[in-house]
Design goal:
The structure is a single chain. This protein has 474 residues and is mostly beta strands. It has 3 helices and 33 strands. The protein has helices at 92-100, 330-337, 373-381, and strands at residues 6-10, 27-29, 38-41, 51-54, 60-64, 68-73, 81-87, 113-118, 123-128, 135-140, 145-147, 156-157, 171-175, 178-184, 192-197, 204-205, 218-224, 230-238, 249-257, 275-279, 291-299, 305-312, 322-329, 342-345, 350-353, 384-389, 398-401, 405-414, 420-428, 432-439, 442-450, 460-464, 469-473. The strands form 8 sheets. The chain has a 5-stranded mixed sheet, with no helix packed on it. Strands 8, 9, 10, 11 and 12 form a 5-stranded antiparallel sheet that branches. The N and C termini lie close together (12 Å).
């Protein structure tokens, strides 16, 4: 198996001189090509460089790996230097328990870091799978060490914040000192959860009994947009609302209100504002792109944001299929979430449009006052929206055959004419990075950069626009 590594591309965020009004011919840079500065970092016995967190100064990069958390100096162009490293593996007892549960001691019974966020200026908060017994802890940045609690234990229970299985997708972000997470909540891997923890408020989560989420829900990204009072989660799950002859996956966006404190009698310690809607990414005459792999939020300078996501289709086989990029405006999401609800007809077991009377304030809205038991009871069964979120211009931004994109990041840059262009960075399962520019005639891939010497999927992608760097881990 090829050695795991972290790559840092210098100057890849497109300088103004490279932007022009006409599509540029695509240039491919093979691994080691001197025309594209690529700095690699790896350490012996360290693998799975899965989680990346950039310090606000863009001088330091924190990396969550298998049994390790690294601090890397990345401020000098062409250089990645290890500053500090924390070894945080499971105890022998936890490893033994993991093996007893029929998990592999060679590949699974480790502590795969899955959550790494900056809690404040002095501490990081980190969670890992911890041999299928998720755990969390704090890292003191001054000396880069784990913080022990009053009993000398260096970790806390990570259930609901971090998956048990390293193969399960997940997402987490810190908003105002509180951790919002989308993950699997049990060992069996059939109880997905969206939770809010840390901070001083009551822990909130989705209700598993009410099946707000299908048992196979897989989270890929989450966002908090400046000036908005909601947190958004992007994921996929098996659709219950369609009569289909086979398991049908559907990409979703869900949102919860930051002001949510749970119900008093109804929905105690549960979200009272959880709503979800279907994302559409399709082109006429083709199977829909219904498998979402990742999403990215690009805030606009005048407020609001646009969401970009990468998809494939569940009906494609191997490399014969296509990958698609679809973009959605925050306003389009809001319009669907303010539209009609679906409800399950208990007699026919079919989902239909809710046609009852309206309530005020609207159930699920970010209303600051206490909600009535009637409104909360309504929310228990009316969490799915009838409308679907369509992409901007009604079609994918980009469709590429013979490739699967694993990650996307988007940045804005100014051209020589003064116009602003958006640049998409798309990582592939084969270890390439595609750079595409949104032009008036549509996006155009201008560069294809081979990141690794052997084909390896890119597991994470992180922009440092101030330094014109892109970090990629596998």
């Amino acid at each position: 198996m090829p050695a795991a590594a972290l790559c840092l591309l210098c100057g890849v965020v497109m300088p103004a001189a490279m932007i022009c009004a006409e599509p540029l011919p695509r240039v491919t840079f093979p691994s080691g090509d001197p025309r594209r500065t690529l700095t690699r970092f790896s350490q012996d016995n360290v693998s799975h460089y899965d989680i990346l967190l950039l310090h606000e100064s863009e001088e330091e990069l924190y990396v969550g790996a298998r049994d390790r958390v690294l601090s890397l100096a990345v401020g000098t162009p062409g250089s990645i230097r290890a500053k500090a490293s924390i070894m945080w593996g499971p105890t022998a007892e936890k490893t033994s328990e993991c093996a007893f549960k029929k998990k592999s001691q060679e590949t699974e019974c480790f502590n795969f870091i899955r959550v790494l966020v900056a809690l404040n200026e002095t501490h990081l908060y980190v969670c890992g799978t911890y041999a299928f017994s998720p755990a969390c802890t704090y890292i003191h940045l001054e000396n880069f060490t784990l913080v022990s609690n009053s009993r000398g234990q260096p970790f806390l229970d990570g259930k609901g914040q971090c998956p048990f299985d390293p193969q399960h997708t997940h997402t987490a972000l810190l908003v105002d000192g509180e951790l919002y997470a989308g993950t699997m909540n049990n060992f069996q891997g059939n109880e997905p959860i969206i939770s809010r923890s840390l901070g001083s408020r009551t822990l909130l989560k989705t209700d598993a009994f009410l099946r707000w989420l299908s048992a196979d829900a897989a989270f890929v990204a989450s966002f908090s947009i400046p000036g908005d009072d909601k947190v958004y989660f992007f994921f996929e799950e098996t659709a219950d609302e369609f009569d289909f002859f086979e398991r049908l996956l559907v990409p979703r966006v869900a949102r919860v209100c930051k002001s949510d404190v749970g119900g008093d009698k109804v929905l105690q310690k549960k979200w009272t504002t959880f709503l979800k809607a279907q994302l559409v990414c399709s082109q006429p005459g083709h199977f829909p792109f219904n498998v979402i792999h990742h999403a990215f939020a690009l805030p606009r300078r005048r407020g609001g944001a646009d969401f970009y996501a990468v998809f494939t289709s569940q009906w494609q086989v191997g490399r014969v299929g296509s990958a698609a990029v679809c973009a959605y405006s925050q306003e389009d999401l809001q319009e669907v979430f303010e539209g009609k609800y679906k409800e399950l007809n208990k007699e026919s077991s079919r989902w239909t449009v809710y046609s009852g009377s309206n309530m005020s304030p609207r159930p699920g809205s970010c209303y600051m006052g206490p909600s009535s038991d009637r409104a909360l009871t309504f929310m228990k069964d009316h969490f799915l929206m009838d409308g679907k979120v369509s992409p901007t211009q009604g079609r994918p931004l980009l469709v590429k055959t013979g490739v699967t994109y694993t990650r996307i990041a988007v940045d804005e840059t100014r051209g020589v004419s003064g116009a602003t262009y958006r640049v998409m960075f798309l990582a592939t399962t084969e270890g390439f990075l595609h750079k595409a520019v949104e032009l008036p005639g549509g996006p155009h891939i201008v560069e294809s950069i081979q990141l690794f010497g052997t084909p390896e999927p890119v597991k994470n992608l992180l922009l440092a626009p101030g330094k014109e760097h892109v970090a990629a881990g596998h």
